[in-house]
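cron nightly-structures :: item 1 of 1
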Amino acid sequence: MNTKREERKRAAIEKQIDENLRRVYEQDATQDVPDRFMTLLAQLREKE
């Protein structure tokens, strides 16, 4: 009976989740990679 209302509510919640994840990702994408990770990546490349 309330399927339309439930669908709209679910869509609104999913939209909020998407927006929040996008904000977090964008913040992380603008930060530099920590030195320890760069060191680990260099070590892995040496082993290849």
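cron nightly-structures :: done
The two ends are 60 Å apart (CA to CA).
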